[in-house]
Amino acid sequence: MDPLAKRRLSDITFVIDKDLNVKSGNRSFLRLIHKTNFNVNLSYIFEDSDIKNFKFFLANFDDSFPTRSFLASIKPFENYISCIFTITRAGEYFNVIIEELSYSRQLLDRALMESRELTALMQNFDSYYFLFDGKKYTLKNTKDLNTIFDGPQEDFKIYITNTFKINISNEDTQAQLNAMFENIENFNAGKYYTLLQIDKKILTIHTLKTSTRHSSLIVASINLHKENEPVMNTYSESRDGLTGLYNKKAITELAIKKINEEKSPCSLIILDADKFKECNDSYGHIFGDRVLVSIANCINDAIKGRGIAGRIGGDEFLILLDVNNEDDIHQIARNIRTGIQWSITNVDPESVVTCSMGIAKFPVNAQNYEDLFELADKSLYIAKYRGRNTYILYSPELHDKILIENKQIDDRVTSGKFFFDCVNSELEILNKIQKLDSSKKEQVYEILNLMISYLQISKITIYDKDFKLLYLAGIDEVNSREDYVRYTQNYFKFFNEYNFLHLDNTNVLNSIDGERYDLYRSTNISSTIEVLTKNKNCENLLICYDLYKPARTFKKDKITFALLVARKLSEIL
Description:
Layout: H1 3-6, E1 12-16, E2 22-25, H2 27-33, H3 48-59, E3 67-74, E4 81-90, E5 93-100, H4 105-124, E6 128-132, E7 137-141, E8 147-151, H5 153-163, H6 171-185, E9 192-196, E10 202-211, E11 216-224, H7 235-238, H8 248-261, E12 266-273, H9 276-283, H10 285-303, E13 307-311, E14 316-321, H11 326-343, E15 355-362, H12 369-385, E16 391-393, H13 396-415, H14 417-434, H15 441-455, E17 459-463, E18 469-474, H16 482-487, E19 500-503, H17 514-522, E20 525-534, E21 540-548, H18 556-572
Parallel strand pairs: 15-16
Antiparallel strand pairs: 1-2, 1-5, 3-4, 4-5, 6-7, 6-11, 7-8, 9-10, 10-11, 12-14, 12-15, 13-14, 17-18, 17-21, 19-20, 20-21
């Protein structure tokens, strides 16, 4: 791998003009763009939508702030990297520093606050949009941002009805218009409104809640349909009231039509919010609703007109992509996953909202909607098994074996043999612990290797009160934590009140602790259970159960037994 891909991008600097022509830069910049000179235009490493956004941003650079930030994705390697461009004006040119999102939450927040409105306008809006700042409405167009109207709601409602020829004699249109203004006044956004015009064309308004440096705003796009597009009788019949996505009935019918009738190549994604029930239980249903709206917004941002999406259950979504190329599918799925993790994050890894996805392609993997949905659902199951916060693009060569093994486990569970074997393994380990002579290291290693086999993990490490290595058993001899634990403050900040940390997928730390995430990534640790316990002398012992890639979800009974063994071992060692 290119060494540049492994490290932070914070030392990459360059100078450009408003058309993205490079004037100068440092050596790291040349390595980033794979060039030997500066005679280049940067457009080729941006997504198409970001090129337009960035040029607009530079052309309208606000000199009242000496430094501005812009959020965009670049593709210097095989995959896109989300970056923050920190920009200062130098005459007719711009000095730019690139910083990677995953290493600076503070910079991410700053960039979102400064450029979120602009990004939303350029990516999602048609030709008109309006703002509500809590007091008045401002109507603008997206071409030159000229103000067309500025005033209170009463006047704006009349103006927008007359200007866009909205048919208020239609009961459904009138009801939606009233609901829209009521929701906007209450700063309730993330919704779609479909209105009928007098000439029987359709007008759609999409509302977003956003922020600038100075205030909170509702920003709404006005999308004019050039032709009378077929829609269901009422908005409520086709859309989910909370998220604005299609509801289950509508998205299912559209998917069946596309796959079974039109036979159009496509990809189907089933997305499930990880541990959503726990989120609802811990933070309440109001927060849970906000999570679902944020997930829907992340899906819309990622698919960007390349598909449609619907909510098919409480925390389950169906996405139908028009793309069938695996690189495009990976990019979209990755953007959805990282977008959700970054937009709904917290300081506690147990409360970070993430998602798992199962993906299947038509007609490559199945010949009809029903079979395609079943394969995507099975792939989702594998993603959950792999530790959550990931996605699985179905491949029969890779995943049929896993599905067969899972079926065999289910059969063993049904017959009772699975539980019988687990009990026998647990009894064998506990009996050996009871007879353990701590002076004989080979006995300790025998127990650790039995635990590795039982938990199906990669290795176990045990550290003493000074966090120096006592025992290491497993597939390698890499002492991955000693220096980090001993010289890092607050290593145990993520441990719960019972003094253990359980991560089914360590990439959940990417959005809350980049340094800790780098530790796990550099040592290939994808899932872990870490237990801080006391030995017979009341001194701390740290016992770590680690699984290398791919990640896997630890079953509750396995976690319980791992904690029990850690406690029993600490009493003897």
